[in-house]
Design a protein that fits this description.
- Two copies of one chain form a homodimer.
- Chain A has 13 helices and eleven strands.
- Chain A is globular.
- In chain A, strands 1-2-9-6-5-3-4 form a seven-stranded mixed beta sheet, sandwiched between helices. A two-stranded antiparallel ribbon of chain A has the order 7-8.
- Chain A folds into two domains: 171 residues, 3-Layer(aba) Sandwich (Rossmann fold); 184 residues, Dehydroquinate synthase-like, alpha domain (Up-down Bundle), CATH 1.20.1090.
- Chain A has 376 residues and is α/β, with parallel strands linked by helices.
- In chain A, strand 3, helix 2 and strand 4 form a beta-alpha-beta unit.
- In chain A, helix 6 packs across helix 8, helix 10 runs antiparallel to helix 11 and helix 12 packs across helix 13.
- Helix content of chain A is 45%, strand content 17%.
- The interface between A and B is large, with 42 and 41 residues.
- Chains A, B: Its main location: cytoplasm.
């Protein structure tokens, strides 16, 4: 919610990490970028901006204006928009560009855009001179609540998504709420899938507000959208601080993702947005949660899973392609990197706002979950 | 020194790091590998070994024997020996190999070899699934005392050495002293350059032993070589624990390296070993140390720099190619990634066993250091 004139803005959430690596997630206009760089101890004169061909034309001028006045010398590179830019080839291209410019270890890399740009630029920052200071400037809901927070960076590989990458934390995140006003509707809704996920796994109060304010969210009411995004980001901040390297509870953020990644693989990357695949995955995961709690589930889900299901349904994911078989989807889950040596691991809900990990899940429960996600 | 039968081996040095990432540097036979994996909490069944075409034929059987008996399933890849394997292309090849085998986040990557293999396999481990457990099995002096300890991983780039990489710490280091017996003489001497470096910057007692025992070292007396390597490794362990990301005193390990990297660039990588370039670089750095302490230096260096110089001279570095000009060398230093925004930074000695950083070094002192390194 924009602070009334004269009031103090709410304090930034801080990702608490060992080794002096704490960092803040600011919800603030891009115009404040130079101040935040200074306060984070970053100094010029050169800054590299990595963006994409959609976001660059919208916000690169604002970044240049914010930095130019403070004496920064801004160099920018725009990669093609879309998942295909998360490749070893594009990563190598960013490195070539940066190294030919002549960076040093103090040169910040600013990732201006959504999840693709954040993951690509983050991996480049992680691997240039063994690590340049990274700043995320997320411009989508999904990036502001999820991908810009927590240090997962990387690119895709022929054998699967996100298989090449590094854990590399930014110096800070600056999320400008105004950038969400230019998001295409489909991207907004895709981002809300991650908001719903964060609410379902960890924040029952946020579930209530989503149920109440859904229409205003879709209308992009600034106050409602701003508060929801901030609260959903806070869930991620807390989880990352508790488990930086995903050896424990951080895996709860994969709610809907084991199913969802299989959908993305089998539907072909790009046919669905990430959020649409996650929404489908959450339908399956909510059903699985009900199955594990109550045994065989037929027809309407029992409480409290009906409530979780209804919230996921508001995301209105497209139907799963009938040509993709449940077996193919289940096979695709086997390649997910979140598997352990002992087999697939699923995140299931115990209640609205509370999740846990489940291993050794029966095959028929998985098959029933796929059928449910199809609307059968 | 090999422990007498029935005695307790000396405790392993431990690199103390925040976030539960402490790790041990064991000096122990490769035959003990399965036990160390188990004690580090790593479990099979699959382990990936990355080695090179020189070291593989010598020690891969020993690794297979050590692991096979403990139920591990070993997959191995040997890259061509030599600096050219530190490339983005080879890194990408290691990733393709590992991902097609179907690794999971528990699959350890074992780097069996010298610095090239450690840097390449380490960077692959750092970037596979955002980080697989890494174990260094260094088989050269330079790797046992320096490159396998401290988490620097990476490959070279068209614009310079080690410009692409990550800080990524191993789970443990297992250095088998017996592997040093198969090192070519030139590699042994090259490794001793790093031993001399560690002694000069941080361990005056080790300087004394090097002066006394040099001939036994060159003869590979197991007890003498073993103790010297262990003590030189301990210097690295201490420095890394104090400054993991090279924001402070870790830079002292670059003694001789700002000059040395320039020599490598201008002589052409491969013409000199890394240790030979560092030995030449240390001659220049010792002279620079004397200049900064005493003003213009002509003829024999004043104490205590004469003593440091004599120890470096035992490394018998080849002469610097007369076709390479001092100006070209000085230019080459400008591209070194250890430079700061404020200019080149040199490590100089205050005394034998004590070093510091020097910035804003006069150009004529650098030129005089190059002339000294040439023997002029």
């Amino acid at each position: 919610m924009p602070a009334p004139p004269g009031s103090t803005p709410p304090p930034a959430a801080v990702v608490a990490l060992p080794g002096g690596r704490d960092y803040a997630v600011h919800f603030d206009p891009l115009a404040e970028l130079a101040r935040h760089l200074r306060e984070a101890g970053l100094r010029g004169p050169r800054a590299l901006v990595v963006t994409d061909e959609t976001v660059g034309p919208l916000y690169l001028d604002a970044v240049r204006a914010a930095l130019g006045g403070a004496g920064w010398d801004v160099e920018a590179l725009a990669v093609p928009a879309g998942e295909a830019s998360k490749s070893v080839g594009q990563w190598s291209g960013v490195l070539d560009w940066a190294l030919r410019l002549g960076v040093d270890r103090q040169t910040p890399v600013l990732a201006l855009g959504g999840g693709v740009v954040g993951d690509l630029a983050g991996f480049a920052a992680a691997t240039l001179l063994r690590g340049l200071p990274l700043v995320h400037l997320p411009t989508t809901v999904i990036a502001q609540v999820d991908s810009a927070i927590g240090g997962k960076t990387g690119v895709n590989h022929a054998t699967g998504k996100n298989l090449v990458g590094a854990f590399y934390q930014p110096r800070f995140v600056l999320a400008d709420p105004a950038t969400l006003q230019t998001l295409p509707d489909r991207e907004l809704r895709s981002g809300l899938a991650e908001v719903v996920k964060h609410a379902l796994i960890a924040d029952a109060a946020l579930v209530e507000r989503l149920e109440r304010d859904w229409d205003q969210l879709l209308d992009r009411d600034e106050a409602v959208l701003g508060r929801v995004v901030r609260d959903a980001a806070a869930v991620k901040v807390g989880v990352v601080a508790a488990d930086e390297f995903e050896t424990g509870d951080r895996a709860l953020l994969n709610f809907g993702h084991t199913f969802g990644h299989a959908v993305e693989r089998e539907a072909g990357y790009g046919a669905l947005t990430h959020g649409e695949a996650v929404a489908l995955g959450m339908r399956a995961a909510v059903h699985l949660s009900a199955s594990l709690a109550s045994g065989r589930v037929a027809g309407v889900l029992p409480a409290p899973f009906d409530r979780a299901d209804a919230l996921v349904a508001r995301l209105a994911p497209p139907a799963l392609d009938a040509a993709v078989s449940d077996d193919a989807l289940t096979d695709a889950m086997q390649t997910d990197k979140k598997r352990t040596s002992r087999g697939l691991r699923f995140v299931v809900l115990d209640d609205v706002g509370r999740a846990r990990l489940a291993e050794d899940v029966p095959a028929d429960a998985i098959a029933a979950a796929w059928r449910y996600a199809r609307g059968e």
